[in-house]
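Exercise 7b. Backbone tokens:
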């Protein structure tokens, strides 16, 4: 899980932190970022390694403990060197050991599941809905999935409507839509569209 696979928005969402925390870690050269082709849309955007999720989740879980930039960089190097291995405890300084599994294990597993589902089930093709990301093998836009969930429907409702689509595809679509906002004006800013 060491390649550059998540956008800053995805890292923030999956780690349970705000986008500013991710940006600050990049600005301070704690986390490396690289422009790569976005897997679903194919455009070149900034990405971070998957290990950024447990790293930021662990930092966020530290209550009343503030690490210097140098200590954060040391923690990052340790996490990255493990290349997706189990989140074993890490000694930051003598007497201070972080239980990474307790701090970030659940979020790390969720990130791995999302990554696998995103890559397996989501795609964008200029010939399908003008390149809007959809669930592979369907014409279901990721934004429609998120809209239905935001409107009060459940995953079970979606599965009932589309029994051929796995639950993981809907879950990945909802996260992708939330972390990759649509471009253009919001619908509310288009007065020529009348609610009807």
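Sequence design result:
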């Amino acid at each position: 899980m060491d390649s550059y696979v998540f956008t800053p928005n995805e890292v923030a969402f999956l780690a349970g932190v705000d986008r500013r925390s991710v940006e600050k870690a990049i600005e301070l050269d704690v986390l490396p970022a690289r422009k790569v082709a976005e897997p679903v849309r194919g455009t070149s955007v900034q990405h971070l390694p998957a290990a950024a999720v447990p790293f930021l989740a662990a930092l966020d879980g530290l209550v009343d403990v503030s690490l210097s930039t140098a200590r954060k960089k040391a923690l990052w190097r340790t996490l990255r060197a493990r290349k997706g291995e189990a989140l074993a405890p890490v000694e930051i300084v003598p007497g201070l050991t972080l239980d990474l599994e307790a701090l970030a294990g659940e979020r790390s597993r969720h990130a791995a599941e999302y990554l696998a589902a995103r890559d397996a089930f989501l795609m964008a093709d200029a010939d399908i809905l003008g390149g809007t990301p959809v669930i592979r093998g369907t014409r279901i836009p990721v934004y429609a999935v998120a809209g239905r969930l935001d409107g009060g429907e459940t995953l079970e409702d979606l599965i009932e409507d589309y029994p051929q689509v796995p639950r993981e595809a809907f879950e990945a679509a909802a996260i992708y839509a939330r972390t990759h906002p649509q471009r253009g004006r919001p619908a509310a800013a288009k007065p020529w569209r009348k609610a009807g």
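Instructor comment: The mean pLDDT is 89. Residues 35 and 46 are 4 Å apart (CA to CA).
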